[in-house]
Amino acid sequence: MTGSVALVGAGPGDAGLLTRRGLQLLEEADVIVADRLGARTVLAQLAAEGVHLRAEVIDVGKLPGHHPVPQDGINALLVELAAAGRRVVRLKGGDPFVFGRGREEQQHCEAAGIPVEVVSGVTSAIAVPAVAGIPLTYRGVAESFTVLSGHDPVGHLPGGRDHTVVLLMGVHTLGHSAHVLGAGERRLDCPVAIIEDGYGERQRVTVGTLGTIAHLAASRQVRSPAVVVIGDVVALHTAD
Ligand code: SAH
After folding, report:
1. In which domain, by residue range, is 156 found?
2. Which of 26, 46, 138, 196 is a plausible cystine mate for 226, CB 3.0–4.6 Å?
3. 172 CA to centre of ligand 1 in angstroms
4. Do residue 116 and residue 176 come from a single domain?
5. Beta 226-230 vs 116-119: how paired, if at all?
6. What distance in angstroms lies between residue 24's CA and the mean position of ligand 1's atoms?
7. Domain tally for the chain?
Protein backbone atom coordinates (compact mmCIF):
# COMPACT_ATOMS: atom_id res chain seq x y z
CA MET A 1 0.00 0.00 0.00
CA THR A 2 1.25 3.46 -0.86
CA GLY A 3 2.09 5.69 2.06
CA SER A 4 1.71 9.45 2.17
CA VAL A 5 3.65 12.66 2.55
CA ALA A 6 2.65 15.60 4.74
CA LEU A 7 4.51 18.86 4.18
CA VAL A 8 4.44 20.42 7.62
CA GLY A 9 5.59 23.90 8.55
CA ALA A 10 7.53 23.76 11.84
CA GLY A 11 7.42 27.51 12.42
CA PRO A 12 10.47 29.62 13.25
CA GLY A 13 11.91 27.42 16.01
CA ASP A 14 9.50 27.33 18.93
CA ALA A 15 7.37 24.23 19.51
CA GLY A 16 4.56 26.48 20.70
CA LEU A 17 4.24 27.79 17.16
CA LEU A 18 3.73 24.36 15.58
CA THR A 19 0.11 23.83 14.52
CA ARG A 20 -2.05 21.18 16.17
CA ARG A 21 -2.44 19.39 12.84
CA GLY A 22 1.33 19.45 12.42
CA LEU A 23 1.87 17.85 15.83
CA GLN A 24 -0.79 15.22 15.13
CA LEU A 25 0.95 14.26 11.88
CA LEU A 26 4.33 14.08 13.63
CA GLU A 27 2.82 11.72 16.20
CA GLU A 28 1.37 9.49 13.46
CA ALA A 29 4.46 9.52 11.24
CA ASP A 30 6.74 6.58 10.49
CA VAL A 31 9.51 8.84 9.15
CA ILE A 32 10.26 12.55 9.62
CA VAL A 33 12.43 14.19 6.98
CA ALA A 34 13.64 17.34 8.71
CA ASP A 35 15.34 20.58 7.75
CA ARG A 36 18.01 22.05 9.96
CA LEU A 37 16.50 25.50 10.58
CA GLY A 38 13.40 25.53 12.79
CA ALA A 39 12.52 21.89 12.26
CA ARG A 40 15.30 20.28 14.30
CA THR A 41 14.83 22.75 17.14
CA VAL A 42 11.13 21.99 17.33
CA LEU A 43 11.78 18.22 17.41
CA ALA A 44 14.32 18.71 20.20
CA GLN A 45 11.88 20.85 22.20
CA LEU A 46 9.10 18.30 21.83
CA ALA A 47 11.42 15.58 23.10
CA ALA A 48 12.45 17.77 26.05
CA GLU A 49 8.77 18.31 26.86
CA GLY A 50 8.24 14.54 26.96
CA VAL A 51 6.36 14.27 23.66
CA HIS A 52 7.41 10.88 22.37
CA LEU A 53 7.62 10.54 18.61
CA ARG A 54 8.21 7.00 17.40
CA ALA A 55 9.23 8.08 13.88
CA GLU A 56 12.69 7.67 12.48
CA VAL A 57 14.20 11.12 11.84
CA ILE A 58 16.21 11.75 8.69
CA ASP A 59 18.09 15.03 8.76
CA VAL A 60 18.42 16.46 5.27
CA GLY A 61 19.69 19.83 6.46
CA LYS A 62 23.03 18.51 7.54
CA LEU A 63 24.46 15.03 7.19
CA PRO A 64 27.61 13.77 8.93
CA GLY A 65 29.76 15.21 6.13
CA HIS A 66 27.99 18.57 6.69
CA HIS A 67 26.63 18.52 3.16
CA PRO A 68 22.95 19.28 2.89
CA VAL A 69 21.03 16.83 0.72
CA PRO A 70 20.34 18.47 -2.66
CA GLN A 71 16.72 19.15 -3.58
CA ASP A 72 16.57 16.32 -6.14
CA GLY A 73 17.75 13.94 -3.46
CA ILE A 74 15.04 15.13 -1.05
CA ASN A 75 12.34 14.77 -3.72
CA ALA A 76 13.52 11.24 -4.53
CA LEU A 77 13.74 10.30 -0.84
CA LEU A 78 10.17 11.42 -0.12
CA VAL A 79 8.83 9.37 -3.03
CA GLU A 80 10.91 6.34 -2.13
CA LEU A 81 9.79 6.35 1.51
CA ALA A 82 6.11 6.89 0.71
CA ALA A 83 6.16 4.31 -2.11
CA ALA A 84 7.43 1.80 0.45
CA GLY A 85 4.19 2.39 2.37
CA ARG A 86 5.46 4.75 5.05
CA ARG A 87 3.73 7.79 6.44
CA VAL A 88 6.23 10.56 5.89
CA VAL A 89 6.29 14.02 7.42
CA ARG A 90 8.46 16.49 5.59
CA LEU A 91 9.13 19.01 8.37
CA LYS A 92 10.24 22.37 7.07
CA GLY A 93 11.25 25.57 8.84
CA GLY A 94 8.65 28.34 8.96
CA ASP A 95 6.00 27.90 6.29
CA PRO A 96 6.63 25.31 3.56
CA PHE A 97 5.44 27.67 0.82
CA VAL A 98 7.56 30.71 1.77
CA PHE A 99 11.01 30.27 0.18
CA GLY A 100 10.72 26.64 1.18
CA ARG A 101 10.37 24.82 -2.14
CA GLY A 102 7.36 23.10 -0.64
CA ARG A 103 5.26 23.22 -3.77
CA GLU A 104 8.10 21.62 -5.75
CA GLU A 105 8.20 18.73 -3.32
CA GLN A 106 4.43 18.44 -3.46
CA GLN A 107 4.41 18.39 -7.28
CA HIS A 108 7.16 15.80 -7.38
CA CYS A 109 5.32 13.48 -4.98
CA GLU A 110 1.98 13.93 -6.70
CA ALA A 111 3.53 13.15 -10.08
CA ALA A 112 4.61 9.84 -8.57
CA GLY A 113 1.06 9.15 -7.36
CA ILE A 114 1.78 9.92 -3.69
CA PRO A 115 -0.97 11.78 -1.80
CA VAL A 116 0.31 14.97 -0.17
CA GLU A 117 -1.18 17.06 2.63
CA VAL A 118 0.15 20.57 3.16
CA VAL A 119 0.07 22.02 6.67
CA SER A 120 0.99 25.68 6.78
CA GLY A 121 3.41 26.94 9.38
CA VAL A 122 4.14 30.25 11.04
CA THR A 123 6.59 32.01 8.75
CA SER A 124 9.70 33.63 10.17
CA ALA A 125 9.01 36.60 7.90
CA ILE A 126 6.22 37.66 10.24
CA ALA A 127 6.98 35.89 13.54
CA VAL A 128 10.64 36.86 13.91
CA PRO A 129 10.06 40.64 13.58
CA ALA A 130 7.23 40.17 16.10
CA VAL A 131 9.67 39.00 18.80
CA ALA A 132 11.25 42.45 18.56
CA GLY A 133 7.85 44.15 18.71
CA ILE A 134 7.90 44.97 15.01
CA PRO A 135 4.62 44.55 13.14
CA LEU A 136 4.80 44.48 9.33
CA THR A 137 1.75 46.72 9.10
CA TYR A 138 0.53 49.37 11.53
CA ARG A 139 -2.31 51.79 11.04
CA GLY A 140 -0.95 55.07 9.71
CA VAL A 141 2.63 53.74 9.48
CA ALA A 142 2.66 50.90 6.95
CA GLU A 143 -0.18 49.53 4.87
CA SER A 144 1.59 46.76 2.97
CA PHE A 145 4.72 44.62 2.90
CA THR A 146 6.98 42.64 0.58
CA VAL A 147 8.98 39.56 1.52
CA LEU A 148 12.14 39.02 -0.52
CA SER A 149 14.98 36.55 -0.60
CA GLY A 150 18.42 38.09 -0.25
CA HIS A 151 19.70 35.41 -2.63
CA ASP A 152 18.64 37.62 -5.52
CA PRO A 153 19.80 41.23 -5.82
CA VAL A 154 17.17 43.70 -4.67
CA GLY A 155 15.71 45.75 -7.51
CA HIS A 156 13.13 48.49 -7.59
CA LEU A 157 10.41 48.08 -4.97
CA PRO A 158 7.06 49.79 -4.76
CA GLY A 159 6.30 52.42 -2.17
CA GLY A 160 8.40 54.19 0.38
CA ARG A 161 8.93 53.60 4.07
CA ASP A 162 5.22 52.92 4.50
CA HIS A 163 5.74 49.75 2.46
CA THR A 164 7.66 47.39 4.75
CA VAL A 165 10.37 45.22 3.20
CA VAL A 166 11.35 41.92 4.81
CA LEU A 167 14.52 40.17 3.68
CA LEU A 168 15.03 36.47 4.36
CA MET A 169 18.48 34.99 3.78
CA GLY A 170 19.56 38.60 3.57
CA VAL A 171 22.67 38.82 5.78
CA HIS A 172 25.31 38.24 3.11
CA THR A 173 23.80 40.66 0.63
CA LEU A 174 22.76 43.26 3.19
CA GLY A 175 25.27 45.90 2.07
CA HIS A 176 24.03 45.77 -1.50
CA SER A 177 20.34 45.69 -0.54
CA ALA A 178 20.72 48.66 1.82
CA HIS A 179 22.58 50.60 -0.84
CA VAL A 180 19.95 49.99 -3.53
CA LEU A 181 16.97 50.69 -1.26
CA GLY A 182 18.65 53.74 0.30
CA ALA A 183 19.20 55.25 -3.13
CA GLY A 184 15.44 55.06 -3.80
CA GLU A 185 12.39 56.60 -2.23
CA ARG A 186 13.14 55.17 1.23
CA ARG A 187 16.37 57.19 1.55
CA LEU A 188 19.37 56.42 3.71
CA ASP A 189 17.80 57.39 7.04
CA CYS A 190 15.04 54.77 6.69
CA PRO A 191 14.99 52.54 9.83
CA VAL A 192 16.22 48.93 9.57
CA ALA A 193 16.23 46.10 12.10
CA ILE A 194 18.02 42.77 11.95
CA ILE A 195 16.67 40.04 14.20
CA GLU A 196 19.10 37.13 14.49
CA ASP A 197 18.12 33.64 15.59
CA GLY A 198 14.53 34.49 16.52
CA TYR A 199 13.26 32.31 19.42
CA GLY A 200 16.78 30.86 19.75
CA GLU A 201 19.61 31.22 22.22
CA ARG A 202 21.41 33.78 20.09
CA GLN A 203 18.36 35.98 19.59
CA ARG A 204 19.57 39.55 19.18
CA VAL A 205 18.20 42.72 17.60
CA THR A 206 20.32 45.29 15.78
CA VAL A 207 18.68 48.56 14.80
CA GLY A 208 20.07 51.16 12.40
CA THR A 209 19.22 52.84 9.13
CA LEU A 210 19.77 51.96 5.48
CA GLY A 211 22.86 54.14 5.69
CA THR A 212 24.35 52.54 8.81
CA ILE A 213 23.12 48.95 8.91
CA ALA A 214 25.85 47.27 6.84
CA HIS A 215 28.55 48.76 9.04
CA LEU A 216 26.66 47.90 12.23
CA ALA A 217 26.08 44.33 11.07
CA ALA A 218 29.75 43.88 10.34
CA SER A 219 30.91 45.36 13.65
CA ARG A 220 28.41 43.24 15.62
CA GLN A 221 29.23 40.16 13.53
CA VAL A 222 25.61 39.55 12.62
CA ARG A 223 25.07 36.00 11.41
CA SER A 224 22.42 33.89 9.73
CA PRO A 225 19.68 33.01 10.35
CA ALA A 226 18.33 36.51 10.55
CA VAL A 227 15.36 38.47 9.32
CA VAL A 228 15.91 42.03 8.11
CA VAL A 229 13.02 44.50 8.32
CA ILE A 230 13.11 47.83 6.52
CA GLY A 231 10.60 50.65 6.94
CA ASP A 232 9.03 53.02 9.44
CA VAL A 233 7.50 50.11 11.41
CA VAL A 234 10.99 49.45 12.79
CA ALA A 235 10.63 52.54 15.00
CA LEU A 236 7.90 50.63 16.88
CA HIS A 237 10.38 48.01 18.14
CA THR A 238 10.48 47.20 21.83
CA ALA A 239 13.36 48.60 23.83
CA ASP A 240 15.94 45.98 24.88
N1 SAH B 1 10.16 28.79 4.94
C2 SAH B 1 10.86 29.62 5.90
C3 SAH B 1 11.95 30.46 5.27
C4 SAH B 1 13.07 29.66 4.66
S5 SAH B 1 14.39 30.67 4.10
C6 SAH B 1 9.85 30.49 6.66
O7 SAH B 1 8.69 30.59 6.25
O8 SAH B 1 10.24 31.05 7.69
C9 SAH B 1 15.46 30.68 5.53
C10 SAH B 1 15.53 32.07 6.10
O11 SAH B 1 14.45 32.30 6.99
C12 SAH B 1 16.76 32.35 6.93
O13 SAH B 1 17.88 32.69 6.15
C14 SAH B 1 16.29 33.53 7.75
O15 SAH B 1 16.29 34.72 6.98
C16 SAH B 1 14.86 33.17 8.02
N17 SAH B 1 14.66 32.49 9.33
C18 SAH B 1 14.04 31.31 9.52
N19 SAH B 1 13.97 31.01 10.83
C20 SAH B 1 14.55 32.05 11.48
C21 SAH B 1 14.78 32.36 12.86
N22 SAH B 1 14.40 31.53 13.83
N23 SAH B 1 15.39 33.52 13.17
C24 SAH B 1 15.78 34.37 12.19
N25 SAH B 1 15.60 34.13 10.88
C26 SAH B 1 14.99 33.00 10.52
Report:
1. 125-236
2. 196
3. 14
4. no
5. unpaired
6. 23
7. 2
